[in-house]
């Protein structure tokens, strides 16, 4: 079972890199970086070079509770749905943290396969 982790990010590249590294091969990672924020070519490459990162974009300005966040989310969904093996989409931001380990996360979705949350 493949999961797509959709990350809306804007400020902490190192945290995003460490977060992405916590996910294994059962995850595809899609990142939208706020267009208003700096993302250097070096930073972009450091994300794109991680093995399970499938997309890094910086298309829309994202402001809290704005249509920009909706557009960024839809872009991430569009990119994730290009992969026919993705069963679940999980939307997070660069301010979120995993509270359980990845194996616990995966077991939950195996147990509840086909259910939406």
UniProtKB/TrEMBL annotation:
Subcellular location(s) of the protein: Membrane
Pfam family, one: Branch
Topology in membrane: Single-pass type II membrane protein
Chief place where the protein resides: membrane
Organism domain of life: Bacteria
UniProtKB keywords: Glycoprotein, Glycosyltransferase, Membrane, Transferase
Cross-referenced InterPro entries: Glyco_trans_14
Record has Glycosyltransferase as a keyword: yes
Protein name according to UniProt: Core-2/I-Branching enzyme
Species, as recorded: Xylanibacter rodentium
Taxonomic placement: Bacteria, Pseudomonadati, Bacteroidota, Bacteroidia, Bacteroidales
């Amino acid at each position: 079972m493949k999961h797509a982790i959709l990350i809306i990010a804007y400020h902490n590249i190192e945290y995003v890199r460490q977060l992405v590294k916590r996910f294994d091969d059962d995850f595809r990672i899609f990142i939208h970086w706020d267009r208003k924020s700096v993302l250097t070519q070096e930073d972009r490459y450091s994300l794109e070079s991680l093995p399970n990162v499938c997309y890094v974009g910086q298309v829309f300005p994202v402001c809290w509770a704005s249509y920009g966040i909706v557009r960024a989310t839809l872009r991430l969904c569009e990119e994730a749905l290009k992969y026919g093996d993705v069963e679940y989409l999980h939307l997070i931001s660069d301010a979120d943290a995993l509270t359980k380990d990845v194996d616990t996360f995966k077991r939950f979705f195996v147990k509840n396969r086909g259910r939406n949350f």
